[in-house]
Structures are given as C-alpha cells and as structure tokens.
Design brief:
alpha+beta, 5-stranded antiparallel sheet, two-stranded antiparallel sheet, 9 strands
Length: 119
C-alpha cells in the first residue's frame, strides 16, 4: 500500500477506497497484470485565491481529459476506450500548503485492464 500522493506517472493501481483523500493508500501493481487505474499525468493549477470546490473540480477534470487523452493517443491507445478522474487539492491544502497539484488517472469503464497505457 502506497500513499496516493506519492505515485509517479505510469504507476498502475487498484481502485481507491470509497472516499479517497490526499492520504489514501492504494495497492500499486505491475502494469503488465490486471489493474483498475493508471496515473497518466500530474499538473498544477494556476496560483490564485481559492476559487471553490466546483471550480477546482471542473478545471482539473477538463484539463485531465485533454492531457490524459493526448497521452493515451500518443501511446497508440484509443482515447474513446478510456475515461479519466482526478485527485485535486483540498481547500486546506490550497490555503495552508500552496498545494496546486492535480493527479490525473486513466481507467477503462468496462473494468480492469492489463498492460501499460503509456507504452
């Protein structure tokens, strides 16, 4: 089990707990085997006053779909097969720790996959 914030791009892992948070642990697995998710991109949001949960979630998801989609296409995967979800900064992390980092995960809505989407 590894803290989700410590994952690196390319890490494959099993589904998160029901209510993931910045300190949630995930089961990291070999991408060659069956897995539920893969971290495909990490990016930072613009430095500004806290804009609110909905603005953060919308911006992060939009950018993740764009960046993540480009990443899987460059790797030769079909963008339409994949969907994306994000782990975003909390208000507390944004205000107290200047956390602007978004983790962008790819998954197949049809279920677990085998193989590395980044290769």
């Amino acid at each position: 089990i590894q803290p989700i914030q410590d994952l690196t791009v390319g890490s494959c892992f099993q589904d998160l707990p029901e209510e993931p948070g910045p300190h949630s642990g995930v089961e990291v697995v070999d991408c060659a085997g069956s897995h539920d998710n893969q971290l495909v991109a990490v990016f930072e949001l613009a430095d500004r006053e806290w804009p609110g949960d909905l603005v953060i979630a919308d911006e992060a998801q939009r950018r993740c779909r764009e960046i993540g989609g480009n990443v899987v296409e460059r790797a030769g995967a079909d963008r339409a097969t994949w969907d994306f979800w994000v782990l975003v900064p909390t208000r507390q992390g944004w205000v107290l720790n200047d956390d602007r980092v978004v983790q962008c995960m790819a998954y197949d809505p049809a279920g677990p996959v085998e193989g590395d989407v980044l290769i």
